[in-house]
Amino acid sequence: MAKMSAENEIEMRICDYLRRHGRSTVQDIFKELKLEKSTVNRHLYSLQASKQVFKTVEDNKRPVWDLVESMNDEQKAKPEQIKPEMTRDAIEEKHVKDLLKSGGLKASHIASKLGQQTQSTNKLLYGLMEKGEVRKCSKSHMWTLKNDQERNGSGSDRKLTSVSGMSQTFDVIEELGDGGYGFVCKVKHKIDDKIYAVKRVEFNSEAEPEVKALARLDHPNIVRYFTCWPDSDNWMSNQETNEKSNTTGSSTDTDDTNERSASDDDVADDEDDDDDDVSDDVTLGMESLTFTESTSAAKASGQCDPTNHRTYLFIQMEFCEGGTLTSWIGERNYRGKQRIALEIHRIFYEISSGVEYIHSNNLIHRDLKPDNILFNDGKVKIGDFGLVAAQKNPSGDPIERSKRKGTPTYMSPEQENLRNYDEKTDIFPLGLMWFEMLWKISSGMERAEIWTNLRNQKLPDQFCERYPAENKFIEKMLSVTPEDRPHVKDIRLNLETFFSLHQNSLSQKTI
């Protein structure tokens, strides 16, 4: 909690500075606040992702930052200045690339600058390398940015179209997201002309639980799964391959963009611990969902080595065109769109119904947050099952899990600190989201203060006065002790009892 409070304090200081001084550059802010430039940059992009600040750049000058609440009408008419859908992974990748603009750096040095563990930084670097944006020198272990010519053909366009299983079946419309847990794009099927979302993840032991859970779940409040398939892609572009072959046997210091051995001083001990809860327990009853013997044989024989091909798993899912709960909340908080209590309770009721169904199938989602709550055809859809896990093993015993799997802002205390936890870990973020849907938070400073208190089971007095019934439920959901939190079924039943969805009076109260 101390680390979280320190992070929040920095963002509060930045917002306070902008409120007093208005439009400012990074240099203005870090000099005044006596902080590292990289620290200020990191927090500014975090505040931008939560739509607290926005950035403008004119005539190749330094970016200028200001509070969203200070935007004039002309700026508000240009929503591209605010990036509500920017994910935490995208923000952190931007921080890494900003640091590399000054020259080559080791992963450990980048991690130190960003205040991260080297393990987290390595994940970001190898993700950027997969996109063709950075490379690594095999001798010095230094990471550098690729220039425009080197990136040509190695970025998202190539990633979207070069894989045979994609290009033969779908027309790619646009990239929807790209982060540590996979790459997602919006596609149109060439035969049925329907729009889908296709997620691409690296085909390893952590990929199968997600697709097997999706295939097993069939509920109106869960993103619909259609099919999946393994496929491979050239890990290096043709240009990189030619460069590598031309320098084979040379003593010249070459860029080994594929080296990821345990002997690397930046990589050793930095890979994720095997997540014991990602196991066959998730796949009970899913024997029919198997993968070809040739794929497994290829992986075992080394044919999927990065210097040759890398195998991916492609997951075809329902495309949700209504956006995310993050955007829904942002429109109310920063664009003045009113929300009625009836609408809020209906949305939360559907979220609870979806989570109840997940839990009834002996699963835990582990990454519930507004980014993973989607809307489509007037229905709420829970998505992103990349961290799904079984509640218990086949014998009914608890499963020892890896710590800190999930999103720190929303994960429960036990998910952050313990290895043993159950489905009650999903109740904690549900409480946070219900509060966030009901209560307007207008600034970064306000959010930082409220969020810290919420995670300590302290709700604002005004909220308690205005929403006495909701307050009681949310307070229980945010209990530090998991046993004190209600089951999601009880939450849903209480929603039906205390907040009748047919109660006309609710529709008159705006939030």
UniProtKB/TrEMBL annotation:
ATP binds at residue 199. PROSITE patterns: PROTEIN_KINASE_ATP, PROTEIN_KINASE_DOM, PROTEIN_KINASE_ST, Z_BINDING. Residues 264-280 have a biased composition (Acidic residues). It comes from the Eukaryota. Coiled coil: none annotated. One of its GO terms (molecular function) is left-handed Z-DNA binding. The keyword Transferase applies. Pfam families: Pkinase, z-alpha. Residues 4-69 form the Z-binding domain. Keywords: ATP-binding, Kinase, Nucleotide-binding, RNA-binding, Transferase. Residues 170-499 form the Protein kinase domain. InterPro entries: CC_SR_Kinase, Kinase-like_dom_sf, Prot_kinase_dom, Protein_kinase_ATP_BS, Ser/Thr_kinase_AS, WH-like_DNA-bd_sf, WH_DNA-bd_sf, Z_dom. Residues 237-281 are annotated as: Disordered. Belongs to the protein kinase superfamily. Ser/Thr protein kinase family. GCN2 subfamily. This is Z-DNA binding protein kinase. It comes from Danio rerio.
